[in-house]
Structures are given as C-alpha cells and as structure tokens.
Amino acid sequence: MLQTFNEKNRDLLVNINGGLVHRDKAGISPFDAGVQGGDAVWEGLRLYDGRIFKLREHLVRLTHSAKALAFDAIPSHDELVAQIKKTLEANNMRDGVHIRLTLTRGVKVTSGMDPRLNQSGPTLIVLAEHKPPVYDSAVGEKGLSLATSSIRRFGPDQMDPKIHHCNLIQSIMAKIEANAAGADDAVMLDQRGFVAETNATHVFVVTGGVVETSRCVACPEGVTRATILELCARHGIPHAERDISMAEVYRADECFTTGTMGELAWVGRVDGRVIGDGSIGAVTSSLRELFGELTRREGERLVG
After folding, report:
1. CA atoms within 13 A on the CB side of 77
2. CATH code for the structural domain at 7-130
3. How far apart are CA 215 and CA 115, in angstroms?
C-alpha cells in the first residue's frame, strides 16, 4: 500500500509561522528543535465539506502534548484555528483534505539538546493536502493485511503515549517490517505482549458481537478511537477496553482499525490468518456507516 502523488498538490501553499510558501520553497531552520531532535508535537485533521471533524479534541491533545514537553509558549486554540483556516482558503480547499498540524519547540540559538537553547518561541507548520483516506485503495474485497512487528510500543514509564510527539522511529521501523512482510501495516505490541496499536492506527476486534480495543497503556488517546467507543455507547453496541492478546485477534469474528488518516478500515488477515469468514463483518459495516454519517453532519466549519 503506497499512496501516489496527487497532481492537485503540485502547487500547495504551506503555512510556516503564518507565512504562506510554495511547497517547493518551504523550509525551516536546521537549528529548529523538530529537525535536531524530533522535539515537536503534531495532529492529523480531516476536512469534510468545509468542516473539520473533532477539531477541538485534536487541538486539546496538541496542547496537552506541548504542555507535557514543557514548551514555553503554546498558541491558543483560536490562533491555531485562524492559521488552519488561512491555509485552507489560500489553497482553495473544501473537501477530501488531510491537514498535518505540527508545533516544534522552535529555533535554537546554537545546536544542542537543551531546551533552554530555544529562545524564540515555537514553530507552527500547517500542511494541508488533497488526500483520500489512506486505506481507500488497499481495503477492497480482501480488507487490510496486518503483520505483527518485533518493535514494541513504549509504556508510560518509558515514553508516555499520551504525548503525541513527532519522533516516529518506532512506527517507521515497524512499517519497514510490514513492508518486508507484504502487509499493509504492522501490529505493535506493548512491553507485556498485548496489542497496543498498529504503526499508524488503533486496533479493534469484534467477538460475539462485543467490540473491544486496547487500553491506552502503550497507545495514544486516539480521537477516532474515542469516537467509535462513543458510537457504540450511543447505539447500544456492547464494547470494552481491555488487554488483548494476538491469539484473541486471530480468533476474532471481525477486526478493524481506526484513525484520522484511515478512518475506519476493516482487516481481512493478520499474520496470514483470515479473520472471521474473510469478509467485512456486520458490526464493522454498521460502525463504518455510523461514522460516515457523523462526519457528514458534524465538525467545525472553517471554509464556506
């Protein structure tokens, strides 16, 4: 599964600290903390018909992550919304758009790890692209294929997953393994051997009509994950958050992943095992429809 270049994105304008720059000329300083150490936080947002779904929830998570990393200055939610809106309007965007919002600790006075070298405030990058949900071309009739990675997710005693930071080396290494295995993505386990998430999304299983997902021990507090659990509660679908082993994944009736980039995508195979009867399940189908209805009617309008 590899996304190809979208010609609509050839002349994108990227927003860096409020300035709009052509994608080919956009850049940040080599002294920026994001470049030097991945010292940054980020959020992925999705634009549906002029509205961003769960915008405030994403901005809250960005702010919480920046606070946990002791950023000296954090833009207000109103400032962030204004810069997102500015970027969308400049690119004439309304629908089918993914936004990557990145906040770094900013530019250092000299190269080094110490946050005290950052004395000019944070760097804000708003990158909006015309991009369909990442798994659209991969799901088809067979669903996603996942392979278990040897790379383990950190727990809160090592690197708290509640910090949505930009150091994605764990995920990249797991993705390399998935690519080598011919799978769409990798299942990542926590330090105890239970399912954490994939390299990019949260994992759900359905067994006996009960929707289950991992506790947020070694995975972030996913916004789409929380939305699915809310939909289950609202529509009387039994659900639970608990430790899940790989054997329980293999024998599940259904499996799906959730994320802003991938929305809700059903899984057909895990480590070569066919999940359920090898077709999208009834509960997964129902939740996909409910999620689609939600994104069509809810969200904060930023462009007309």
Report:
1. 11
2. 3.30.470.10
3. 32
DSSP 95: S
Ranges 113-122, 135-144, 177-186: which has the least confidence: 135-144
- What digits encode the pLDDT tens for the residues 193-225? 999 999 999 999 999 999 999 999 999 999 999
How is the chain split into domains, by residue range?
7-130, 136-297
Residue entry with tokens 């999208």 = 280
The whole-number pLDDT of residue 137 equals 56
Q: Name 92's Cβ contacts closer than 8 Å, sequence gap at least 6.
A: none
Sign of the CA dihedral with 156 first, then 161, 165, and 167 last: positive
Give strand pairing partners of 240: 212
pTM of the model: 0.95
Contact 45/96 with Cβ under 8 angstroms? no
CATH number for 136-297: choose from 3.40.640.10, 3.40.1180.10, 3.40.190.80, 3.20.10.10. 3.20.10.10
* 216-217-220 Cα angle (round to 5): 45
Interval 59-79: pLDDT, tens? 999 999 999 999 999 999 999
Calculate helix-pair angle for 55-68, 223-234, nearest 10 degrees: 130
In this structure, is the dihedral angle defined by the CA atoms of residues 247, 250, 255 and 259, taken in order, positive or negative? positive
Q: What is the distance in angstroms between the CA of the first residue and the CA of the last residue of the chain?
A: 33
Mean pLDDT score, 143-169: 96
Residues 108-137 have a mean pLDDT of 93
Alpha-carbon span 281 to 275, nearest angstrom? 10
Count the neighbouring beta carbons within 10 Å of the beta carbon of residue 116. 9
299 pLDDT exceeds 60?
yes
